[in-house]
Known about the structure:
Elements: E1 3-8, H1 19-26, E2 31-35, E3 48-51, H2 63-82, E4 86-90, H3 102-114, E5 118-121, H4 124-133, E6 142-144, H5 163-166, E7 172-177, H6 186-194, E8 201-206, H7 216-224, E9 228-231, H8 237-246, E10 249-251, H9 261-268, E11 273-276, H10 279-288, E12 293-296, H11 302-314, H12 328-344
Parallel strand pairs: 1-2, 1-3, 3-4, 4-5, 5-6, 7-8, 7-10, 8-9, 10-11, 11-12
Helix pairs in contact: 1-12, 4-10
Amino acid sequence: xxxxxxxxxxxxxxxxxxxxxxxxxxxxxxxxxxxxxxxxxxxxxxxxxxxxxxxxxxxxxxxxxxxxxxxxxxxxxxxxxxxxxxxxxxxxxxxxxxxxxxxxxxxxxxxxxxxxxxxxxxxxxxxxxxxxxxxxxxxxxxxxxxxxxxxxxxxxxxxxxxxxxxxxxxxxxxxxxxxxxxxxxxxxxxxxxxxxxxxxxxxxxxxxxxxxxxxxxxxxxxxxxxxxxxxxxxxxxxxxxxxxxxxxxxxxxxxxxxxxxxxxxxxxxxxxxxxxxxxxxxxxxxxxxxxxxxxxxxxxxxxxxxxxxxxxxxxxxxxxxxxxxxxxxxxxxxxxxxxxxxxxxxx
Length: 347
């Protein structure tokens, strides 16, 4: 029997994050996957409703709108379950990045969890953090299925963020990539980088500022330092390929993180990673080794960044990197296997 799956999202977020599109494209031989629309929230006779970021509902400004959309989501889940279907959540975030109504948010997440049939975690670390935050829901059936790689998705195309405009032909080029958010530590990275006594190391920051912005003094530092450049805009897939291929290492100075698609993207381009010794980065280092991840103890300082640069200059440039376990086909098969486990659970 070919499974009927309703995914939220399936491909509607492809322009900002191709993760779902790649996953469900790889799943096509195994399941018929349809888009779950976040406004209509209609269902048919699907076997699985697969949620990814239900916490987006909880980021709203107006409490009445949050309650209404959350109510509609719960009703959709109930319809699926009354027909014998199951609801699964891939836990990308434990809670919304932005919480305007934390008490309401906490209650709603617990209510959502009480109605789920299964959970997918992208790492063992995220599973552990989930159980710390939601101990009453730690018994929900789960599977740890890694974030797939991005091989074959990104193609080069030079544009306003192309590497020739920002990266030097000599020296070491560091890239910090992704949407600018407070927990990603960009301001600290700029201040620390400014303290380095190295004229041959260059830092490029690429990502959309959105509503978050950066402080005036950090913006001034970027503007005045010839070794720091920034492209604060949405980075297209073509620009992404160019920036990653032109960098020597990817710096992810997050203060906190559950999962990191950017880390997987770095490995996809065979670029070493400099990051804090927390959560998913520890898991990735266990799998891919010390030639691909340099992890420092927080907080980031100039001394620690210098040590990372020393590691970078001495690491084996020809180190092997086997990403076969992150193949979209492998991840899709593991996901469908878990769908079937959940469907058969307690049957």
